[in-house]
Write a structure and sequence with these properties.
- The chain folds into two domains: about 50 residues; about 220 residues, MetI-like (MetI-like fold).
- The chain is about 75% helix and about 5% strand.
- It contains 13 helices and two strands, in the order H-E-E-H-H-H-H-H-H-H-H-H-H-H-H.
- A two-stranded antiparallel ribbon has the order 1-2.
- Helix 3 packs antiparallel against helix 10 and helix 5 packs parallel to helix 11.
- The mean pLDDT is about 85.
Length: about 300
């Protein structure tokens, strides 16, 4: 019996040894593309961006900066802060922190709670909120801008109040039009994520609070918000990163004119030119400044409520 058992055990080990090369080959093959993609599109791109900050344009091509002027691009960047156009660009970008984190997110949280409580026509409200998140931003900006033109479908309403819609995307109102569009398109994504986070809350907790006579406002503040806090924190961080990443909205609506230019749009525009050293310097500077702020904010927000696993 012992000899038969040993033979069977040896047979199993031999089969495992024969299968191992195939399994290893499959795993390596499946991991090869994502690892290559990460090395090329993240690691390689970021290393190249850092190297670009130590180059300048000479004879219509990029060349390495001499050692005696190693920080040439950084000196130019700091000198540009005194330029009103550049300072307005940074100010216009910082507005998106207020818009995304302090306006859009709290309102989205309220709407998500109403939908979660299954108010009347909750399904219709879901479609209304989600639709801007599904459609391409190019189509949304086209519809949005066309609606405010002279022959747009909102023209009769503006004519009734004596307003000229063709001027909305010019002058001081241009900023407001971009902000309203960002709020309209951003609120749907937030509501979708928040309702998904609220759906994870166990029904036992909600039924217990209902049996204890907890009113909706207290339930929202003391139950819903703490239990969905990880989702809220994530959306808050995403909103902060909008300071550096918002560029399509002002580009498609106002072409960055009338004080609507942002850091992301400036980097996008300059990246199409030969002088890629300047946008790379702006990007690296924003990364150095923004990374500790984002990480510090995330650590601070995580201290408000402890994460609960369901």
């Amino acid at each position: 019996m012992s000899s038969v058992f040993v033979k069977k055990e040896n047979g199993v080990n031999e089969k495992r040894k024969r299968k191992f090369p195939r399994t290893a080959f499959f795993v390596i093959l499946m991991l090869a593309y994502p690892v290559f993609h990460f090395c090329l599109m993240w690691f390689g791109v970021n290393i190249n961006s850092i190297l670009l900050t130590f180059q300048w344009v000479r004879n219509s091509r990029l060349e390495w900066v001499p050692m005696n002027q190693l920080f040439y691009n950084y000196n130019n960047l700091f000198q540009e802060f005194s330029d009103p156009v550049i300072s307005n660009m940074y100010k216009a970008s910082l507005v998106y922190f207020v818009l995304n984190c302090l306006i859009t997110l709290p309102i989205s949280l309220l709407f998500a709670y109403f939908i979660f409580k299954k108010i009347y026509a909750a399904g219709a409200f879901k479609v209304i909120f989600y639709l801007p998140s599904i459609l391409p931003i190019v189509a949304l900006t086209l519809v949005y801008k066309t609606a405010f033109e002279n022959n747009g479908f909102l023209t009769p309403i503006f004519n009734f109040f004596g307003l000229k819609s063709s001027t909305f995307f010019m002058g001081d109102t241009a900023q407001w039009m971009v902000w309203i569009f960002c709020f309209w398109t951003g609120i749907g994504y937030n509501v979708m994520m928040l309702t998904a986070g609220m759906a994870r809350i166990p029904r036992d907790i909600l039924e217990s609070s209902k049996m204890d006579g907890v009113p909706p406002l207290k339930e929202f503040v003391h139950v819903i918000i703490p239990l969905t806090w990880p989702t809220i924190t994530t959306l808050f961080i995403f909103g902060m990163m909008g300071v550096f990443g918002t560029y399509l909205q002002p580009m498609l609506l106002t072409a960055g004119q009338n004080n609507t230019n942002t850091i992301g749009l400036q980097i996008f525009r300059e990246s199409t030119n030969v002088a890629k050293n300047h946008p790379a310097t702006i990007g690296l500077f924003c990364t150095i400044i923004g990374t500790p702020i984002v990480l510090g904010t995330r650590a601070l927000l995580n201290h408000f409520f402890k994460e609960v696993n369901f």
